[in-house]
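User: I'll paste a sequence; please echo it back and then give the predicted structure.

Assistant: Echoing your sequence first, then the prediction.
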Amino acid sequence: MTADADVNSSPAVPWSDGLVMSKDGMAALVDVLIRRGFTVVGPTVRDDAIILAELRSADELPYGWGVELEAGRYRLRERSDGAAFAHAAGPQSWKPFLHPPRVREWSADRTEDGLVIAADRPTPPRYAFLGVRPCDLRAIAVQDRVLTGGMHRDPGYEGRRSGALLIVVECTEPGATCFCVSMGTGPAAGPGYDLVMTEVADEAGHRFWIRSGSSEGAEILAEVPTRSADPDTRETARAGVATAADRMGRAMPEADLRELMATTLDAPRWDDVAGRCLTCGNCTMVCPTCFCTTTEDVTDLTGDHAERWRLWDSCFDLDFSQLHGGTVRASPRSRYRQWMTHKLGTWYDQFGSSGCVGCGRCIVWCPVGIDITEEAAALHDWTRPGEAEPP
């Protein structure tokens, strides 16, 4: 556990007796959600990856599929136990649903009566997110703080988020790039869920230990076939989560990461990572907490119709820091340093927590395999000129 984890960790969530739901119960849960008018989004297999998409039934869940993760590498693998949620974070988080990568803000048309401007304020679907990982549960809370917790609130995000139902699945099999324990975000669920479950698939059968965290979650659970939780299922579920905490594939150095970022701005390691970084922005796109956007105005060939779109932006883009007279961060070194020091350091100054939740997506989906935990460790081990070598 790092110093960051102490700052960023959630209050302990007391274990309750809960209920046990079978695989058939999972099918019934999805049916209940759809009947209640939710757009159910959960993991499913598509294009050789486990992605998040709208589910029409529980049959679309990735039963029997796991993943192999490493820096710059992602592969599906078949499992023998038929588990649906025994896979680590995939290429998507829930961010594209709550904070979409492309949103039209308004459109304008030239008419005989003048310019007519219409704001785009569509009614968002009411989402039920099925299979939210504890790290992503924290990421949603981080984005809540960024986009709705200050003076300038994002009404689009607020509308999508206010109706979202969060069904969390605790992790029992972390990936090789996971480090949620270092960030205090998993593998057990923190607060903020409507339902939380722990999947168990062993010789006693395939089942889910499920508990409610809100009145709406309890109402939905009451419509699903369940049985009282037996001690064996509870203990097996608890043991699976506890074991996962000891099997993290990565870890942040045991240090105050905020202070580490502030005191290593001139470290030569930034030159090393800049020599490998493509400044492609993949890390910001897959990150569940990166929130920056830009605007783009477009018009048709006649000039009679125009639209303004809000798009995701990245601090790796040269134009991101464009001011009158030039780009503030012209070098890959400065742009990578901005991303990492903000994520692990100055995010605290803005929002009171770390911007990293330990999901490891930036490691997996970096085309050259840059590892944020490795970079933090290198900065931690750096000795300034004239200082004694660390013991």
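Residues 257-381 form one domain. The longest strand covers residues 102-111.
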